[in-house]
């Protein structure tokens, strides 16, 4: 199962509203965990369904606010950190490194 993060939700968004928006876009979900602080986690069946959900939900406005949609989960966070450190490493090359 793959997790999807949805952010920038207004406090009055309900689970029923999210289910309706996802259903209108033919996105099949297993579970929704909604936090009133403005974000939700959604379980998708697999990575293919997750990528399709991100594609369909990007740029969507719910209650007048454009939501942010991205992968959630530990392996995606590790990959993001690796890319950032790799980018920083290119700007600050190491000195006196022997292998």
Description of the structure:
The protein has 99 residues and is of the alpha+beta class. The protein has a single domain, classed as RRM (RNA recognition motif) domain (Alpha-Beta Plaits). The chain is 39% helix and 28% strand. The protein is built from three helices and six strands; from the N terminus they run E-H-E-E-H-E-E-E-H. It has helices at 15-24, 47-57, 74-91, and strands at residues 2-7, 29-35, 39-44, 61-62, 65-66, 68-72. It has a four-stranded antiparallel beta sheet with strand order 2-3-1-6. A two-stranded antiparallel ribbon has the order 4-5. The longest helix is centred in the C-terminal third of the chain and has 18 residues, at 74-91. The chain is globular. The N and C termini lie far apart (40 Å). The relative contact order is 0.22.
Strand order of the largest sheet: 2-3-1-6
Coarse morphology: globular
CATH fold field value: Alpha-Beta Plaits
Largest sheet: 4 strands, antiparallel
What is the CATH C-level name? Answer: Alpha Beta
CATH A-level architecture:
2-Layer Sandwich
**Helix content, binned percent:** 25-40%
Number of domains: 1
Specify the CATH homologous superfamily: RRM (RNA recognition motif) domain
Kindly report how far apart the N and C termini lie: 40 Å
Mean pLDDT, all residues: 81
Order of helices and strands: EHEEHEEEH
Strand content: 25-35%
Task: Describe the structure concisely for a colleague.
With 99 residues, this protein is of the alpha+beta class. The chain has 3 helices and 6 strands, in the order βαββαβββα. It is 39% helix and 28% strand.
